Amino acid sequence: MTTYLLAGGGTAGHVNPLLAVADGLRARDADADVRVLGTAEGLESRLVPQRGYELLIVDKVPFPRRPDRAAAAFPVRFRRAVAQVRQHIAEHAVDVIVGFGGYASAPAYLAARGAGIPFVVHEANARPGLANRLGARRAAGVGVAFEGTPLPRARLVGMPLRREIEDLDRSALRAEGAAHFGLDPDRPTLLVFGGSLGALRLNTAFAGAWREVLDAGWQLLHVTGERSDLEDPGEPGYALRRYVDRMDLAFAACDFIVSRSGAATVSEISALGIPAVYVPYAVGNGEQALNAASAVAHGAAILIPDAEFTPDTVPGRILPLLTDADERSRMAEKAAEIGIRTGTENLIAMIDEALA
């Protein structure tokens, strides 16, 4: 029996694809020994046990960004983290490590090399993180979610997706999705969302322009984020929600999307063949714009910089797309061409190659 150790965590961007692969391994072989390596502080400390997997703990050791006391202590702390992973490998007779980035992955890659076992790297973002840039140099396989991701020997495998997205039949669930949000399945629907915390820029723009969307004959499903204080006008055809735990139904109900461009978001939208406008989050190192770049280059989506997205943008740039059925159809076709629903399957095949 093969023992798999999946390393990653910290954010949903690392944890969700990790869990998709864990579930895929279990679905293929119910007796597969699948364990997860993560920190006690990250999102994985809650989500991994909830999904029924054992979480093996490694110390959280951030890479130093400046010469300070933490930088001086880094070598000793990092060696201790590597030793912790080596111990987990020995105790559980681990055969292969799969890293998804984050604090757990860097010591996992070094421990795997020291133990003489193969490891595979998966990078979800178009701009790789430091741990995966280091690990990719010696990995048995390197899978990426977006074409052009600058890692050595990278192979486009796509994003491991949640099963409810991977298997989603949008047409079959459209009526259920519309009913879930109190919308009419026979009218076109625009979905607007900015991630679990929402997006103030999108919320502000549509708060000032939702009426134009409805006047154009469209419905609006607006997911504002739990922290938003945006008031619901209670208008028929405008479904405002703070949070949605059934994004599969939201995707099934919609015909066009305006959203941020996190790696999972872009991967899911493209995999489902939905045309979109992406408004990348402006904070960070620009990875959200890079995540959207492939879809934009192929004509599946349009990118509007965050600073340019105002209430005037909705009638000026969004409504012309909503009223151009031919353009939306063309964008949907392009999205379906580049979208990958088999990310989990593809990455598991790479893991099998590493073990061969």
From TrEMBL:
The UniProt record lists the EC number as 2.4.1.227
User: Known catalysed reaction(s)?
Assistant: di-trans,octa-cis-undecaprenyl diphospho-N-acetyl-alpha-D-muramoyl-L-alanyl-D-glutamyl-meso-2,6-diaminopimeloyl-D-alanyl-D-alanine + UDP-N-acetyl-alpha-D-glucosamine = di-trans,octa-cis-undecaprenyl diphospho-[N-acetyl-alpha-D-glucosaminyl-(1->4)]-N-acetyl-alpha-D-muramoyl-L-alanyl-D-glutamyl-meso-2,6-diaminopimeloyl-D-alanyl-D-alanine + UDP + H(+)
Q: What is this protein called?
A: UDP-N-acetylglucosamine--N-acetylmuramyl-(pentapeptide) pyrophosphoryl-undecaprenol N-acetylglucosamine transferase
Source organism: Microbacterium schleiferi
A GO term, aspect molecular function = glycosyltransferase activity
Residue ranges occupied by any Glycosyl transferase family 28 C-terminal domain in the UniProt entry: 189-337
Q: Does the keyword Ribosomal protein apply?
A: no
Where does the protein principally reside? Answer: membrane
Q: How does it sit in the membrane?
A: Peripheral membrane protein
UniProt-annotated binding residues for UDP-N-acetyl-alpha-D-glucosamine:
11-13, 125, 162, 196, 288
What gene makes this protein?
Answer: murG
Localized where?
Cell membrane
Which intervals hold domain Glycosyltransferase family 28 N-terminal?
5-142
- What's its job? Cell wall formation. Catalyzes the transfer of a GlcNAc subunit on undecaprenyl-pyrophosphoryl-MurNAc-pentapeptide (lipid intermediate I) to form undecaprenyl-pyrophosphoryl-MurNAc-(pentapeptide)GlcNAc (lipid intermediate II).
Q: Which CDD domains match?
A: GT28_MurG
- Fetch the Pfam families from UniProt: Glyco_tran_28_C, Glyco_transf_28
The pathway that the record names for this protein is: Cell wall biogenesis; peptidoglycan biosynthesis
EC top class, in one word?
transferase
Record keywords, A-Z: Cell cycle, Cell division, Cell membrane, Cell shape, Cell wall biogenesis/degradation, Glycosyltransferase, Membrane, Peptidoglycan synthesis, Transferase
**Family named by the database record:** Belongs to the glycosyltransferase 28 family. MurG subfamily.
